[in-house]
Amino acid sequence: MAELINPNPDIFEVSEIVRESGDVDDEDTPEGIDKLEVFELIRGVRDPEHPNTLEQLKVLSLEGVEMRDEDNILVWITPTVTHCSQATLIGLCVRVKLLRTLPNRFKVDLKISPGTHDQEVAVNKQLNDKERVAAALENSKLLEVVNSCLVPLI
User: Fold this and answer.
1) Where are the extended beta strands (E) located within the chain?
2) Helices (DSSP H) in 3-139: which residue ranges?
3) Global pTM?
4) Distance of CA 19 to CAs 35, 60, 77, 97, Å?
5) What tens-digit pLDDT sequence spans the chain (154 residues)?
6) 112: exposed, middle or buried (C-beta count within 10 Å: 0-12, 13-18, 19+)?
7) N- to C-terminal Cα distance for the chain?
8) Is the CA virtual torsion 103, 104, 107, 112 positive or negative?
9) Residue 79 gets which letter from DSSP?
């Protein structure tokens, strides 16, 4: 087995997030999507190296989801170590999850949280390059890994 990038990551409690009572759905009003709904979609994405979710590792958090406007989302990814070679794979998993679950009108940007990765600029470029994402998803082995990260933990 390959050596783990971070063999002993910190695992955090996952807190239940409750929607405020003023945020009740109204079936007669066209529904927008807010940061809580976006986070609910991605919080269960699994880490490619460990049997934990990205939320449990604090790679993803509710605070790291920003709604730039009603159709433009920014998700900040915080690697567990500054030399994480899995950062682009993790970003690809998050992107695929959102591509598969959000309507096509949404534009999603993924970025590494500032100062949390040695190759922050290069990783950010890869995460948001449509051609690289498309090419990665054509690789059956890589797609198999991505799909395994999208299977919920039981």
Assistant:
1) 65-69, 72-77, 107-112
2) 35-42, 87-101, 120-127, 130-138
3) 0.84
4) 11, 19, 23, 22
5) 466 667 767 777 777 766 655 555 555 554 678 999 999 999 999 999 999 999 999 999 999 999 999 899 999 999 999 999 999 999 999 999 999 999 999 999 999 999 999 999 999 999 999 999 999 999 999 999 999 999 987 6
6) buried
7) 24
8) positive
9) -
DSSP character for 62?
G
In 10 A of CB 79, how many CB atoms?
23
Contact 61, 94 (CB under 8 A): no
Judged by phi (left if over 0) then psi (alpha if -120 to 50, else beta), residue 96 lies in: alpha
Instruction: Answer positive or negative: Cα dihedral of 130, 135, 140, 141.
Output: negative
Amino acid at 28: D
Helices then strands, each counted (H, E), the chain? 5, 3
Contact (Cβ atoms closer than 8 angstroms) between residue 89 and residue 123: no
Distance CA 59, CA 47 (A): 9
Q: What is the DSSP pairing of strand 65-69 with strand 72-77?
A: antiparallel
